[in-house]
Amino acid sequence: MAIIPHEKTSCGGLTLHRIQTDKYKTTTVVMQFKAKLTKDTVTERALLPYVLQSGTAQYGSSKAVRTELEKLYGATLGVDLAKKGDFHIMTFRMDFANEKFLSEDDPLFKKALTLLADVVMNPKTGNSGFDSSIVEKEKRTMKQRIESIYDDKMRYSNMRLTQEMFPDEPFGLHVFGESDQVDQITSQSLYDYYKKVCAEDEVDLYFVGNLEGIEVENIVKELFPFDERSSRESETTVKASLDVEEKEVQESQEIKQGKLHMGFRSGVGYADDEYYALQVFNGMFGGFSHSKLFRNVREKESLAYYAASRYESHKGLIIVMSGIEFKNYSKTVEIIKEQLTAMRNGDFNEEEMKQTKTMIRNQLLETVDDAKGMVELLYHGVVSRKLRSIEEWLDGIEAVTKEDILAVADKVKLDTVYFLKGEEA
Fold it and tell me: What's the CA gap between 123 and 60, in Å, rounded?
């Protein structure tokens, strides 16, 4: 059975994860920086990785960094941001050819890692902190990134739903930061925050590829000399409270298609025993094309252009998303609620359960077939403090009974109905 071959060691101030496999001709490196999501730091943190990849002490511009990547047989380097539960994650990813497949005897592994270390550890600085021209350029790009959410009505509705569900909690913050905080950031304040990140963040460094004969640990210790930090074992996400009253929020904009997003709380998170049952529940409720939402809201009633649900497992949320005509709002809300009632009443058969389990299984096996997917799965274990093997996961899904699904369906509680409609509607 597929199980991620995973070796984990403490390496100074970071945790090193090695996934030895000869399945790929490339080596994938993923570096994750994890800290609590807070209003005070969300915008600086969202800006930081983009500033770091735009120039180092040795390669002073993003063009110079790209040129160096090309010299490394077309290596790629990218950054990303994610919100996982109560944490704000910065990610640096690098892919480069495995030197075993190159004709020349070039220590490409160390060269590539030296460039990544340069980006993370040796940024281009000016008189006061980071290079100010890089910071100003990235601030402009960041404002565009935040504004682009407004133009994508599905993402915008999702953001607004989350803000309404968590008005006074960090989870209500957007991963890209707050536009009204961007101008306050200076090259000095961002550099001060960067030093804090290097000193305090929980850092995980993943390698996926054929690592035989490479002294990974020694190279990492040399290139990433982070100071030891205090254990964060107790830091986990606080699941969304179930003590809420159902509320409705409507907004108008100049749009042609209404966006109906509904946020439910389940009280079941990634580390819980009921996690598998909640996954199967979500698959049958709205996660797949054979689900109740897809069949009844979209196909049977023709009320929605799309209708689906997703499970945010760290916070324990189920988010339903649909695109509808403005006049169908009340009827669609009613039918979505009816699908939850149907799940609670056990209005599903063995065949639907079996089909859902098969699709979850296929999704999982597809994910572990990909280097980045493997890292993503393992990192869920870091964030939740609960590491599952693929075997456990597959067995857990397979073992879910109808009673298990009814038990979690009973916990699911509607929190907020958010509707973005046209101005004339």
Answer: 9
